[in-house]
Amino acid sequence: MSKSKRRGSSNLILRNKLKVTKHAKDISIHGASDKFKVGLSTVRQWMRQEKQLHKIAESSPGGKFKKRLPGGGRRLTFNDLDDQLAAWGRERKSKELRVSRRIVQQQAVRTFNSEKDTEDFKSVTHPPDQNTI
Question: Which residue ranges does the record annotate as region Disordered (predicted)?
């Protein structure tokens, strides 16, 4: 029975990603891939992002321990609403009141509907069922 060559998790902290890129430059991409147990494409991607990785690692004391570059994810649809909700949540926390996800969702619906006078905004607590699409 042959052993499969399973790669490890590529969710390394920034400091280790920089070690991988240095090893890839000094030795080879294949050598770095084998030593750190990450895929070749992952090593190549980190080499392309090396300047950004260095910038984040040097920008803050905890930067070396981050795992991702900033900027991922979907852009906010309602920036003002998000800012208002954040301020509202901080205000409640300062008064030592509860702030749960459900309460924040309810406040978001109230805030949006009071500003827009329409029912366009919907808060999603879970993905829609396949039958409703």
Answer: 110-133
User: What's the pLDDT at 123?
Assistant: 61
Distance separating alpha carbons of residues 100 and 89, to the nearest angstrom? 9
In which band, very low, low, confident or very high, does the pLDDT at 116 lie, cut at 50, 70 and 90?
low
- Between the alpha carbon of residue 13 and those of residues 19, 42, 46, 77, the distances in Å are 10, 13, 12, 30
pLDDT band at 2 (very low <50, low <70, confident <90, very high): very low
Both tokens assigned to 104: 């924040």
Torsion angle of the four alpha carbons 53, 56, 59, 63, in this order, in degrees rounded to the nearest 10: -110
Tell me the percentage of the chain whose pLDDT exceeds 70: 79
State how far the Cα of 59 lies from the Cα of 63, in Å rounded to an integer: 6
Tally of CB atoms within 10 A around 35 = 13
- What are 126's two structure tokens? 């879970």
Instruction: Quote the DSSP letter at residue 73.
Output: S
pLDDT at 7: 55
Q: How far, in Å, CA of 50 to CA of 45, rounded?
A: 9
